[in-house]
Design brief:
Blueprint: E1 7-11, H1 21-31, E2 35-40, H2 44-47, H3 54-67, E3 71-76, H4 89-109, E4 113-117, H5 128-148, E5 151-155, H6 165-175, E6 180-183, H7 186-196, H8 200-205, E7 214-216, H9 236-245, E8 250-253, H10 263-283
Parallel strand pairs: 1-2, 1-8, 2-3, 3-4, 4-5, 5-6, 7-8
Length: 284
């Protein structure tokens, strides 16, 4: 029996897309992770997951039973293409449909948390109206989540709209729902701390009582993706310690599969690297 008092998940995109559900879950288990975070991004293939048949959902449930490793969170970045604050009403309608279906899927599969992309718009220019629409639709999303008992958490992004925990918290307070919190990204808030001359640890503090989980990701100044763990500037000791003191017990290793890489070895290395920090704070 695992005596650890936290859970470490694995981002689905760290593995080749061609793998089956069973293969992905088994790979995560072999590398030592506790669960997998499913990706529903803006591609048609991933958005189609929101319309899976009962039979397809049964395949996922069977894969979880067979491996003993569950899907426990969703990274919902599909709103990048269909944002909640889009000036086009039809896009807003699609955005809410995506939200409703993602929450329903989470509820059916036993998934606890959905990470939301912190954008009012992404491919267009934001303004007061896009932010106002974003807030109104966010309130609707929180009510949908409350109905199913699924937690929503804002990811701190790489754009100025919501690149810090403090900025995400402004919207959490506006909506004021127990089902909307923050899901900070260690790499993104570290880069933001350089931009604003602040501290990533102090930024995490602003989310006290509202942090649902933390993405553990490596970054270097100005670059937000595909930086191997241990080669960037994220202070994992400080991030893990602060998150722990704030009551966070769910973490996800976020990194990406690169074609031609020894991805299974990279999964193992990521698990060993992050467990090193998390086990230390767990042991006190």
């Amino acid at each position: 029996m695992d005596k650890r008092s936290y859970r470490l998940g694995l981002y689905e995109k760290s593995m080749p897309a061609c793998l089956s559900w069973v293969e992905k879950l088994q790979a995560a288990k072999t590398a030592g992770f506790d669960y997998v975070e499913m990706s529903i991004d803006e591609t048609d293939a991933k958005l189609a997951r929101l319309d899976m048949t009962d039979g397809e959902k049964d395949e996922i449930r069977a894969a979880m039973r067979a491996t003993g490793i569950p899907f426990r969170s969703i990274c919902l970045s599909g709103h990048r293409k269909y944002p909640l604050g889009d000036p086009d009403c039809s896009v807003q309608a699609r955005s809410l449909e995506i939200m409703e279906k993602a929450i329903a899927l989470a509820a059916e599969l036993g998934i606890r948390t959905i990470q939301l992309a912190g954008y009012d718009v992404y491919y267009k220019e934001g303004n007061e109206q896009t932010r106002a629409d974003f807030i109104e639709n966010l309130k609707l999303a929180a009510k949908m989540a409350a109905k199913e008992g699924v937690m929503l958490g804002f990811e701190t992004m790489e754009t100025p709209f919501m690149d810090t925990t403090a900025k995400a918290m402004a919207y959490v307070k506006l909506v004021d729902s127990p089902y909307l919190g923050v899901y900070p990204d260690s790499g993104n808030i570290t880069n933001a701390s350089l931009l604003y001359g602040t501290s990533a640890v102090e930024d995490l503090e602003t989310g006290r009582g509202h942090i649902v989980a933390v993405h553990l990701k490596e970054t270097v100044p100005g670059k937000y993706r595909e930086i191997p763990f241990g080669t960037g500037h994220v202070d994992f000791t400080a991030i893990a310690s602060k998150a722990w003191k704030l009551g966070v017990r769910r973490f996800v290793a976020e990194f990406w599969y690169l074609e031609g890489s020894d991805w299974q070895q990279e999964l193992q290395q990521a698990n060993d690297f992050l467990r090193g920090y998390l086990d230390r704070v767990d042991e006190g």
